[in-house]
Amino acid sequence: MPLTSILAAAAVAVSMPSEVHIAYGDEVSEMVVAWASSVPEKDGYVRFAKQNGSQPPASCSSFQLAPQASQLAMNTSADRTTYLYHTVLGGLDPSSTYYYCVGFTEDVLTDPVPFKTRSSSPESTRVMIFGDTGNNHYWSTGTVPTIRKEVENGTVTAVVHTGDFAYYAKDNDGKQGDIHAQEISNLTGSGMVPFMAVPGNAEVFCYRPPGIPLWAQCMEDYQMRFIMPGYEKTHSLWSSFDLGYAHYVLLDSEALLWCGASQSQADQLVFLKNDLEAAQKRRADIPWIFAVVHRPLYSSYNSTGEQLAMRDGFAELLEEYKVDIVFSGHVHSYERTYPVTGNYTITSNATVDEQPNNHYRNPKYPVHVITGAAGNGESIDKFGTYDWTFSAFKSIDIGYSR
């Protein structure tokens, strides 16, 4: 065999998908499968099959072939490209276990990976929520193995990330984004549970050749890697989904802050109002509404001006439609507030909904949970000495919420 043929055969043999992860689709009957490659494979394939009884289905070669995957080419430098693939598995039965395999030919695929579909009616769920992960000792040796163990034990329904995956996706010609996307695959059991996310400021990145400025809302790395519900309309910047007894609405804090993003924020607020109106009408069946946004609306950490911008952008709608909990990151620590409303400055307090024994039944305002201490590569954000009346609990320990 000529040397060129040997090299070509070797390239095919070692070209296997990386960064494999899944996400909920637009419908309860859908699951999105996404993965990456460092070389431009012509095609991407997924095979999947439902488990019947207690035994997993046979080998991947007998699985149903999913629709041809879409390919996106992301330039991370002048001479480096990452190739990203995704496809939607449709027609899935509710509350069922499926297995899927991923590859670049119909027959050479990864080992089968299981996942469970959502229920067609509300049921109890267990969700991991955290943000500001980065890629360092705390994250890779502490948080990832702990979460993965829970995932593999079957106790996790889904993972929700509040933004800032890698510090920063653009570093090392975009390789940092690749590294952390693989860590996300690792912590979800190589794609056993859905990974749902919002963008943070560390995701603001796309490569532009010299002479072409970096435009506001430049989220190509995030948008191409993570396919959220409604992707065709919002490109994963904001989205929503139902899971168990809760409706989750995922928001983009960066649309409020980056120059020239006013139209993006206007579009987002239209989406948010329509989404919350629909969720409110279904509260008899799905009583909880959770919002997820990277930057917090309230925090004891000293970033008051930024928090004011977040409240100006989102608080009115979140309070009008009685959102129960707002999950955020950005601040590298943990904090939970009382139900709270109002714009405040460094010299005044917000209004707190006080009820006996700190037990809340249908509070007037949302509770805010900042869970940005999953192990970022910068540092823990220590709180000041001032005790804000809205703050119920604070911690600077590394960890995640569930």
How many helices? The count is 7
- Proportion of β residues? 15-25%
How would the global form be characterised? globular
**Amount of helix:** 10-25%
Strand order of the largest sheet: 12-13-14-15-19-16-20
What is the succession of H and E elements?
HEEEEEEEEEHEHEHHEEHEHEEEEEE
Q: Which spans of ≥5 residues are poorly predicted at pLDDT below 50? A: 1-14, 212-217
| Average pLDDT metric | 84
What does the radius of gyration come to?
22 Å
In total, the number of strands is 20
List strands and helices in order, with pairings.
Elements: H1 3-14, E1 18-24, E2 31-37, E3 45-50, E4 64-65, E5 70-77, E6 80-89, E7 97-103, E8 113-116, E9 127-130, H2 137-152, E10 158-161, H3 175-187, E11 195-197, H4 220-225, H5 231-234, E12 239-243, E13 246-250, H6 262-281, E14 288-292, H7 304-320, E15 325-328, E16 334-337, E17 340-341, E18 351-352, E19 367-371, E20 391-395
Parallel strand pairs: 9-10, 10-11, 13-14, 14-15, 15-19
Antiparallel strand pairs: 1-2, 2-6, 3-4, 3-7, 5-6, 7-8, 12-13, 16-19, 16-20, 17-18
Helix pairs in contact: 2-3, 6-7
